[in-house]
Specification:
This protein is an alpha+beta fold and 196 residues long. The chain is built from four helices and ten strands; from the N terminus they run βββαβαβββββαβα.
Length: 196
């Protein structure tokens, strides 16, 4: 397969975002969203998914973190979609069960072209650093819909809120890595419909 790279930008009155992802990378990344904890989560996603990721965001953080986090999710989903092209020859499905100390997270993905998010994580703190914990769901919702992927994310064992968030992002990276890998036994799109 040729290197699969997606680039996406978004400029509104609320955010200005430039993002690039290489699905065939090694986990190198440069991330600056203005929200240090969110940067840490995206770093975990990229490193454990082995994606090269560049993210630069200027957002209205004087309001709150909502627009920055949600719009970054939209742009990441668009870049993933662009990098995948017509999805011919990929595994399509990916899942990962990720332990992080006392916490256990599950991520399952179908790059089906049909967006859906099934999310279950109950945080007991309002924020982690300057990232509102309720925005974690909004981020994954935005990614799933703009990438047109079926995404299931669940915390199976609760624990420390930092561990829970990190486990979700890392599990997402690992599952997406599996789903985007080449399946050498097929060359076409893996679907009875003939397209995704």
């Amino acid at each position: 397969m040729e290197k699969r790279i997606g680039n996406s930008t978004r400029t509104t009155k609320e955010t200005d975002i430039q993002l690039s992802i290489n699905l065939d990378g090694s986990g190198k990344n440069q991330i600056d969203t203005g929200i240090p904890f969110f940067d840490h989560m995206l770093d975990g996603f990229a490193r454990h998914g082995l994606f090269d990721l560049s993210v630069k965001v200027k957002g209205d953080l004087d309001v709150d973190c909502h627009h920055t986090v949600e719009d970054t999710g939209i742009v990441l989903g668009q870049a993933i979609s662009e990098a995948l092209g017509n999805k011919a020859g990929i595994k399509r499905y990916g899942s990962f069960l990720l332990p992080m100390d006392e916490t256990l997270a599950l991520c399952a993905i179908d790059l089906s072209g049909r967006p859906y998010l099934n999310y279950r994580a109950e945080f007991t703190t309002k924020a982690l650093g300057t990232l509102d914990t309720e925005m974690i769901r909004e981020f994954f919702y935005a990614v799933s819909y703009s990438a047109a992927m079926n995404l299931h994310l669940k915390i199976l064992e609760n624990g420390n809120n930092h561990h829970m968030a990190e486990a979700l992002f890392k599990a997402f990276g690992k599952a997406l890595d599996v789903a985007t890998q080449e399946e050498p036994r097929i060359k076409e799109v893996w679907s009875t419909k003939g397209s995704l």
